[in-house]
Amino acid sequence: DRQTLVAVLQFLRRSNLRESEEILRREARLLGDDLGGSVATVASSSPGVAAVAAVPPGKGGARAGTAGSLRRAGPVVVSHCIFASSFRLSYKLLLHANAFAVGGGVVVEDQPDVSAVLSAYNQQGDPTLYEEYYSGLKHFIECSLDCHRAELSQLFYPLFVHMYLELVYNQHESEAKSFFERFHGDQECYYQDDLRVLSSLTKKEHMKGNETMLDFRTSKFVLRISRDSYQLLKRHLQEKQNNQIWNIVQEHLYIDIFDGMPRSKQQIDAMVGSLAGEAKREANKAKVFFGLLKEPEFDVPLDDEDEEGENEEGKPKKKKPKKDSVGSKSKKQDPNAPPQNRIPLPELKDSDKLDKVMNMKEAARRVRLGPECLPSICFYTFLNAYQGLTAVDITDDSSMIVGGFADSTVRVWSVTPKKLRSVKTAADLSLIDKESDDVLERIMDEKTASELKILYGHSGPVYGTSFSPDRNYLLSCSEDGTVRLWSLQTFTCLVGYKGHNYPVWDTQFSPYGYYFVSGGHDRVARLWATDHYQPLRIFAGHLADVTCTRFHPNSNYIATGSADRTIRLWDVLNGNCVRIFTGHKGPIHSLAFSPNGRFLATGATDGRVLLWDIGHGLMVGELKGHTDTIYALRFSRDGEILASGSMDNTVRLWDAVKAFEDLETDDFTTATGHINLPENSQDLLLGTYMTKSTPVVHLHFTRRNLLLAAGAYSSQ
Fold this sequence. Notes:
Layout: H1 2-14, H2 18-27, H3 39-45, H4 50-53, H5 57-73, H6 85-90, H7 114-118, H8 130-143, H9 146-152, H10 156-169, H11 173-183, H12 192-199, H13 204-207, H14 211-218, E1 221-226, H15 227-239, H16 243-252, E2 253-258, H17 265-271, H18 309-331, H19 350-364, E3 377-382, E4 389-394, E5 400-405, E6 410-414, H20 426-429, H21 439-442, E7 452-455, E8 462-467, E9 473-478, E10 482-487, E11 492-498, E12 504-509, E13 515-520, E14 524-529, E15 537-540, E16 546-551, E17 557-562, E18 566-571, E19 577-582, E20 588-593, E21 599-604, E22 608-613, E23 618-624, E24 630-635, E25 641-646, E26 650-655, H22 656-660, H23 667-672, E27 685-690, E28 698-701, E29 707-712
Parallel strand pairs: 1-2, 3-29
Antiparallel strand pairs: 4-5, 5-6, 6-7, 8-9, 9-10, 10-11, 12-13, 13-14, 14-15, 16-17, 17-18, 18-19, 20-21, 21-22, 22-23, 24-25, 25-26, 26-27, 28-29
């Protein structure tokens, strides 16, 4: 709305952020210089804006100074929910980047001003009648027709929370307690954790600084309801003159109305359960380039680098048929693929090309998996891991395995007969003949050869690890708030990236190297490049910790899973959120993209694996079977099988081909979210493999489709 816009423009002008003011002006098509209205009037008319309008000159100046100095350091991209609630919903300030690959300083405002946020709960209505209002609505919904009842029942939870918080804020503690005790048992089981937090908020003072509370207040709870059901509700509330509930519906809920048949209880249950309700339908409308980038073509003479003559003849022979098939695949550009130069990707080095050739040769011997041909599974059990195993990763060529531990160490093992060796010291390197054929072998110091290397540097548990595709680097992230980049040539730390102020839960390299992503307790994911010490992008929007991160195979998108029970897909180019997936009933702990880039599998503490069609923004499957948190998901190299690993000590294999065939992705389904999931996911379960007492924390398919699994044996 215009008032909000005017307040933001005036704030930017006062803070000397002229460039940002111009960008916002252009986007809002507000070209005249006269902003109209004074800050004071805007502030008093809109409680949500008070936080911005009332910045004392001193503070504004200090902040402007910081912004100014950071501005000079480079471009700024902030897709943070800046300022107060109305701004979070109205405008994302994206201060555009000059060029993608240049990192810049980032200015991120703190949480919206607490008093401004809470002031919306000013006294309305008689506190003694709240129970009556709520039970009246409950009676009306329970007596309505079956087709409307399921949809209108979605109102119970958000109304219950807001009415309770309103009572607490206005210091009607006994009424609030009685209201909570009477109705909390009616809420859906998947809101139990939120209700536990809510039950601890019994005084007005408790509400300040409570993150869950602020989230609930500042993000409108989204309900998707058919037009018929909505009209029914509106008529009822107006007839009863139940202004209390109608005010909450209008102020705190976002009702996404669609035309057509109301959804069934099953369809609604599949989609709800996140901290802020469902995703708005517009949130999943943006175009996503989910296709794969064209593979570079290389010349066959790369094989000259091999020494044995017989092998030299053998190699091209093996490679040529494979080359043709790869060539024919990649000659046609995938219509859903992003432009090749949409984001700058690192150039292939000769060693990368050699690795691709090896990959093709391995792929030629790959086992074709399916329901009749399941993979063998090789399980790496970490025994006596008293240090507490907290993260695992395996290199793409399956030659090394890394463990992150709660004692803050990172341990790297070689799982082939080839030992891990460091490069020789500078003095020894100067003696080497640099022209010799085996110079890469000569620079390695045999005296350092061992099966295990321990990397010290973090000062807290290590929660995430990731090998670079070229196996030269390793990333680790920790409770200490840093992400570290280690060299696998010298086994030393090269860089410590500081951006998160709280624990970092996950980090992952892009499939092309160079870029990596991290996500943490501060609720944002950050995109980095190895040669920039500041993040290139900040992806903000989740309402709780970002617990896991994954790059799309084409590296143009990043998926993040969160404790707010949603999964978001972010565009690396501009920092925009292009998909929001809701349906899990607990924090998300694992993500996996299908090799063709079309689908995403997600696992959470609710023991369910959900499958998503990225192009249409729809849930297309639900795999039930696990009884505990799913920490690992991986598709086989050809995408025929999905493997899931859980804290219930099992690895399960699912038929991915069958799960994704005959999908209902017509326009009606996409528009309304009337998804019909198959009743029985047991038809898709191909096998369950139990360990004795080892939770599964990582899964990896080798280039020939052998499944590797890893976890630490737990004695209890």
